[in-house]
Amino acid sequence: MEENSIVAKPKQWALLVQEFWRDTNSEMKKVTWPNRQEIVGTTVVVLVATIVFAVYLWGCDLLFYKGIELLFNKFGASI
Fold first, then answer.
1. Alpha carbons 8 and 13: distance in angstroms, whole number
2. pTM, whole model, 2 decimals?
3. Is-contact 78 72, C-beta < 8 A?
4. Which residues neighbour 79 within 8 Å (Cβ) at sequence distance 6 or greater?
5. How do the pLDDT tens digits run along the chain, 79 residues long?
């Protein structure tokens, strides 16, 4: 093990961890947390967008399936 590694210096390691937690707490106090209304609003947007894209992709899948089925039937192949 190197003599300069962090494991070789437990006191320095403890100070670094303490500084990390102090900096983390300081930054977390600066965070602007969303209120309940904002959370509900964004959740509704995500759910609606998910449903819209699901229906769109289902429609594309159905359209491609029917198109391929039509081509296979026209040229004598079967699915």
1. 9
2. 0.58
3. yes
4. 68, 69, 72
5. 555 666 667 778 888 889 999 999 999 999 999 999 999 999 999 999 999 999 999 999 999 999 999 999 888 775 5
